[in-house]
Amino acid sequence: MQIDFVITELFVGGAERCLTELALGMADTGVKVRVFSIGSLPTDERDSLVSRLRDSGIEVSSGEANTSLQVISAYGQLRKWLAKSNADICQTFLHHANVLGTFAAKSAGVRTRVAGIRVAESKVLRCKLERLALKSSQSVICVSKAVEDFAARQLGCPPSKLTVIPNGVDTQKFANAEPFDWSQIGWPQDAAVTLFVGRLHQQKGIELLQSEIDRLAPNGSNRRLLLVGDGPLRAELQAWASRHGSQQVQLLGWRPDIASLMASSRLVVLPSHYEGMPNVILEAMAVGKPVVCSRVEGSQELLRHDWEHQTFPTGDSQQMTMLVSRFLDQAPVAKATGTINQTFIHNHYTVARMVERYQNHYQKLLSDQ
Predict the structure, then answer these.
(1) What is the pLDDT of residue 69?
(2) Which of 58, 143, 199, 360 is deepest in the core (most CB within 10 A)?
(3) Tell me, what DSSP letter sits at residue 22?
(4) Distance (Å, rounded) from C-alpha 303 to C-alpha 144?
(5) What is the pLDDT of residues 205-244, one digit of tens each?
(6) First-to-final CA distance of the chain
(7) What DSSP character marks residue 169?
C-alpha cells in the first residue's frame, strides 16, 4: 500500500500531530508514505513534526502557499507531486487540504480519495467549497460523532461515505512528562494553576477566561491563570495580561513543553465555541489532569464518563468558573479525577489504536474497489 497525505500546514497543532503520528505508524507497518503541506514548512523550533517525519525516512514536500494568491501555484505543485507517486490512496487533513487535495488527486488519477474533517466550522463559503470537494471523495473520516453529524448536515455527505475515527495521543509521553518548575516564571511551586493551551483565536472562547479572571485567579491567592499559544489575539491578550500583572495571569506564547506545563498545573480549561475533537483535552487527560471543557464537538466522547463535572454549556462563563473552582479548592478531587481521565484515555485513545483503525479502513476501501 502507498499513501500520500496532504495537510494544510505542518506547524505544531492538534491535527498536525495526529497526521504525523498516523504517517509514522503506517510507515512502521511497511506502508509507503509521503506527506505534502500546502503551506510553507516551519523553519524555527516549531519544525519538530517535519523533523520527526524526515528522520523516519518519510518524504515531506510543500506548496509554499502562505497567501491566497499562492494557492493556484500550490495546487499545480500538488497535482504534479501526486501524479509522480501512483499512490493507492490520497488522505487529506483539514479544510484547505480537503478542497485542493481532493481536486488535485482526482486530476492526477489517484483512484481512492479520503477526506478528513477535523473541526465543525460552519462558515457558509467554507462549507460550500468543502461540500463540492467531498463529492469527489470515496470516503470522509470524521474525528467524532458530532463532526460526523456536522458533515452529514452541513456538508451533504451521505452516511455511506462517513466513518468516525477519533484522534489518538502518545499516552506514555504525556503520562511520563517531567513537571515544570513554576519558579522559572516567578510563581511559587504550590501555585494552583489553571492552564489554557491553544490557538489565540476567537474560536477558543478566551473571552470567558478574561471575564472571570478575578474569580479564577484572585489577587493575593495562590491561584494563577496561564495562557499558552500563539495567534491573531496575541497582542491584545498580552496587553490584557500585563494590566492584571504577572502574579495573576501570564501569557507565554507558543511552547514546546506543553506536557510539562500540564503536569504541573491543577487543571486544563478549554472554553471553545466549536471544535472537532480537542487534542489539548486528550493530552491533558493523558497526563492525568482534570479538565473543564465547553460542550463542543468531541467532548461527549472524551468526557462521557464524567460529563457533569468536567463540561459546561458553551459560552457559560459562570458554570465554567464553578467547575474550575471545584478543582482548585479540592486538590484530592482534582487528583482523583485526573487518574480516572488518564485511565480512560489509555484504554480508548492511544496512537496505536488510531493507526489500526485507519489501516483497517484503508484496506477495506481498496478491497471494495
Answers:
(1) 86
(2) 143
(3) H
(4) 12
(5) 999 999 999 999 999 999 999 999 999 999 999 999 999 9
(6) 14
(7) B
Nearest to 278 by CA among 143, 98, 95, 94: 143
- Same domain flag for 97 and 188: no
Is this structure's pTM higher than 0.70?
yes
Query: Mapped to the 3 state alphabet, what secondary structure does 125-152 carry?
Result: HHHHHHHHHHCCCCEEEECCHHHHHHHH
List of residues 6+ apart from 134 with CB closer than 8 A: 98, 102, 115, 140, 151, 155, 156, 157, 161
Same-domain status, 42 and 108:
yes
Residues 47 and 105 reside in one and the same domain: yes
Sort residue 277 into left (φ over 0), alpha (ψ -120 to 50) or beta: beta
Are residues 175 and 151 located together in one domain of the fold? no
Q: What is the pLDDT of residues 265-278, one digit of tens each?
A: 999 999 999 999 99
Q: Which whole number is the average pLDDT over 300-321? A: 96
The answer to whether 118 touches 143, Cβ cutoff 8 Å, is yes
The number of folded domains in the chain is 2
Q: What is the CATH number of the domain that holds 337?
A: 3.40.50.2000
The Cα 171–Cα 24 span in angstroms is: 16
- Cα gap 364→367, rounded to integer Å: 5
Which one-letter DSSP state was computed for residue 218? -
Distances from the Cα of 85 to the Cα of 5, 58, 79, 279, 336, angstroms: 12, 13, 11, 31, 50
31 — pLDDT class (breaks 50, 70, 90): very high
The pLDDT tens digits for 76-126 are: 999 999 999 889 999 999 999 999 999 999 999 999 999 999 999 989 999
Residues in Cβ contact with 276 at an 8 Å cutoff, skipping those fewer than 6 apart: 117, 118, 119, 120, 142, 143, 144, 146, 147, 297, 298
